[in-house]
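Protocol step 4 of 5: obtain the predicted structure for the target chain.
Materials: sequence only (see below). No template structures provided, no constraints applied. The aim of this step is simply to have a reference model before the mutagenesis design in step 5. Sequence pasted as it appears in the construct record:
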Amino acid sequence: MVNHQILLRTLQELGVSGSALCLLTSYLKDRTYRVTWRGSESDPCQLTTGVPQGSVLGPLLFSLYTNSLGSVISPHGFSYHCYTDDTQFILSFPRSETQVVARISACIADISQWMSAHHLKLNLDKTELLFLPEKDCPTLDLTINISTSVVSTTQTARNLGVILDNNLSFTANIAATTRCCRYTLYNIRKIRPQLTQKAMQLLVQALVTSRLDYCNSLLAGLPACAIRPLQLIQNAAARLVFNLPKFSHTTPLLRSLHWLPVTAIFHFKTLVLAYHAANGSGPSYIQDMVKLYTPARALRSASAKRLAAPSLRGGPKFPSAKTRGFDILAPKWWNELPIDIRTAESLHIFRGRLKTHLFRLHLE
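Step 4 output (structure tokens):
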């Protein structure tokens, strides 16, 4: 639980002072809680830990409370990423590295000590260790012993709802998504006679296509055979909206619903990010991955707003995990766009032209 005294001290260390600190102090102090059980109610107790559940400030205050965790992870040579109460740290090492287990154990031990000092608990039962081997690299035994718990490498690990596997093939994630969507479609089909077509479309978009869209840009560049289960789900959803039999042709249905096919959605999301990067409006970590193409001498292509494509000479054959990165796919797909789309004056115009282009490319 978030300790109020530690939180206020952390805010002061981050530079929060004066009326802002007084406002946050008054927000946290003098809060009480009661427990009600079967008509009986406990006496009010003073709340000295935790932040109000469901409040706008709750997630922000928790992120500030755990801000110093990064200073515990970094000295061990790990990169890290924090999202609310999820913390991931990443270590890249050569085959010759022999101290991997010791480094991970030391880092987890320091994190455990930091959490104890901040009135938090490291849940080792939910701690997962995923090893992503290089090509032809043997699998390593990275069993970590912490106190009475053992953390071993897993074949898959869940990250913000996405299932990652050690080959980055996303087979497990696609299987889980299709299984969930198929079950949802089965339940929606039961109430199909009670709903209008418009209501059915809204329901399918809210419960099925939204799940297909979640983090699906991670699947960009996968072979068609891997994506096919997701496309079959989208086809089934379109038929359900129009109440058509199983083998009805879906191309006119997708066009009528203004639904891009699954593969086209990958292109759309990747290219929108590329537009932000090319125009300097995206986050820095996206802009750092792509650069505008600058010819060595004056050429007409200089005004075509092309992106510099990285060289793949001597690299792995497509579509390996390395060649499915944003820095590879974004320039490739961007440079294939017609010039009037690449040079669109605004994001709104770009999105409209891009969607029309992808519709023509995939549904005609």
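Step 4 remarks: The two ends are 56 Å apart (CA to CA). The mean pLDDT is 85.
Proceed to step 5.
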